[in-house]
Structure formats: structure tokens, C-alpha cells
Write a structure and sequence with these properties.
mainly alpha, two-stranded antiparallel ribbon, 90 residues, 2 strands, single chain
Length: 90
Amino acid sequence: MVKKMYQNPSVGLKEAVRKYFNRTEGSNLKAPVKTGTNPRRVSFAARFGSMKGSLLSKSGKPTRLKLALKAWGFGSKEAARNFAARNKKS
């Protein structure tokens, strides 16, 4: 579980989270790719575009899913699905 001090409620995860996990867990986490047709962005769009769940909580606040989509430059799950369908390599 990610410590609260590393979470950013308006955007998702902070740069400090990636540094923390790369240092302590030996991971290789990278920042979101907000534009272009980078294969990481296409893969993200395909995975998150098909995720179940609402984009808003019952209180009307954006969920972690919506924050992640926003961080990668997508406004909705449908936009992410469409992007992935257009740019995936066969």
C-alpha cells in the first residue's frame, strides 16, 4: 500500500512515489506519457479503457481510475479505448 504522504488527491501519484519504490523495491516505475502514440501509452489505454468501475465516487469526487486516466491524457474510458484501438499494433 502506498503511504498517504506519497499520494496526490488531485492528480494521482507523485514523483516521490516512483523514486521511493524504485529505491526500496528495486522497481523501474516511469512517469505517465501524456501525449503521442508511445507503446506504453497505448498499453495503458487498452488496460484502463476496459476497467470496470465508475469514474466518480458516490460523493461526486473523481476515483483513482479517473485520476489515472487524466494523468495519461484521457478524459474518459471510452476515449482511452478508442485511442488504443486506433494505435495498437497487430
